[in-house]
Amino acid sequence: MSAIAASFTSLRFRRGLVVPLLVLVAWELITHYKLANVHLLASPTAVLKSFAVQAKEGELFSQLLASLRRDLSGFALGSLAGLLLGSAMGTSRVADRLFGPSFDAAKQVAVFAWIPLISVWFGNGEPAKVVFIGLAAFYPVVVNTYQGIRSVSREHVEVTRAFRFSRLQTFRKVALPAALPAIFSGLHLALIYAWLATLGAEYLLAPAPGIGNLMIDGRESMAMDKVLLGVILAGLIGFSLNAAAARVEAYFLRWRVRNA
Amino acid sequence: MSQSAVIDIRDVSKQYTVKNEVLPVLERLSLTINPGEFLSIVGASGCGKSTLLRLLVGLDREYQGEIQVGGQRVTGTNLDRGIVFQEHRLFPWLTIEQNVGLGLENSPWDAAKKKQAIKEHIELVGLTGFETAYPHQLSGGMAQRAAIARGLVNQPSILLLDEPFGALDALTRSRLQGELQTIWQREKITMILVTHDVDEAVYLGDRVVVMQPRPGRIRKVVEVDVPHPRDRSDPALKALTEEVRAEILHVSPEN
């Protein structure tokens, strides 16, 4: 069963590689035959060389680490706050009435619109970036946690009443596990949004080490190899974070019925 | 095997209000259920039999009249009254073992005794070997067995069953009816079974309460004076089944 699943995934995985490989070949050909301006489009080989140089100097690694640290701090901050608010609104009618409308209104404001306020309140440095990333992660976690907890079936709650569960027991034994699939969807989205927001924060707030910085540097010195390297790295990291989240999710939700 | 208590239902009425219209569900129902008895409650849908059961469990507390268990008015659920619903209502994120263990969440027993009780009850319903399976891996009949184990695990003196075999296929249903009879004889507790299956009601019950709808009330109480374990082909049992069926059909000739 799992062997079949594994070969299916690997087949799917190999098919997924077809397009990137074709793009890579086309890209190399275009630059090799100078079909485009090489100053505007560096060749894959140049990007690879740039990667080797930066990696050797150790600079790339520290930039990557800085971005990831920022990303994960914001993600942790935002999703923790989101879990708290979402659970409160999901379990308590009072909290729902109190915070629900304000949250729904705040949700309508694009996260980037908060940047001016955030920079006034938290400055231009690291705290502001983390808060901004946290905000991006916050929304999907609140929405999904809330909906997950609200979707607990009455039938299951009756079982806990028959066994005289306390409110805490009901939350721990029923509401939380029943909401877990939705919570994971929320965290998963938050992880993606946080990574997008990380690059946004690096672009829009004060320059500091990070992948965004690498790209800004590249653009300013017309080193397109650096810019493209940044784009590729951002994509790869996003892809890896996504895959890691899917793995964790599959592990915790292994009780679910597996249907296509 | 805990001390069973008498269940006393006196003049119980209940109504629902739907859009300002009062809908009587139960009307002046009186009934005494003896400790260790197997009582079947049978009737067409809408006769209030499930409502009565919910009142006995304590899941529904709004009614007129008096329901007492062992001289105490029922004011809510109690660990001494277990329940098995029509749907198994197992928690999909817990294994069978953990699901059965839910019944012991608030039990004063120590961990070893709990573990032992879970093991024994899984064995009692014939699910040994499936302790670590998840509900979605079980058939409907097996899931309902697990639900019965969960209802019995903390050794209540009363087990209430709300059409527990209603959603199962005929073959599985008769097998589980037989098993329930064995369990009842072994545990010597009071069981109250709500069903619309006349054969099931008579096969299992010491007494069969026939209810009639609109508003729900007791039409007749039929004694089933046939010793357990029973044989389905017993002529006395068959005659009583026909008697009960006639009572129900008489009530609703349109069916």
- Assembly level: heterodimer
Question: What is the 3D form of chain A?
Answer: elongated
Tell me, what is the CATH class of the largest domain in chain A?
Mainly Alpha
SSE order of chain A, one letter for each helix or strand: HHHHHHHHHH
CATH superfamily of the largest domain in chain A: MetI-like
What's the total helix number of chain B? Answer: 7
Number of strands of chain B: 10
Task: Look up the CATH topology of the largest domain in chain A.
Answer: MetI-like fold
CATH H-level homologous superfamily name of chain B: P-loop containing nucleotide triphosphate hydrolases
- Cα(first) to Cα(last) distance of chain A is 14 Å
Overall geometric form of chain B: globular
Order of helices and strands of chain B: EEEHEEEHHHEHEHEEH
The pLDDT mean of chain B sits at 88
CATH class of chain B: Alpha Beta
**Main sheet of chain A, how many strands, which sense, barrel?**
none
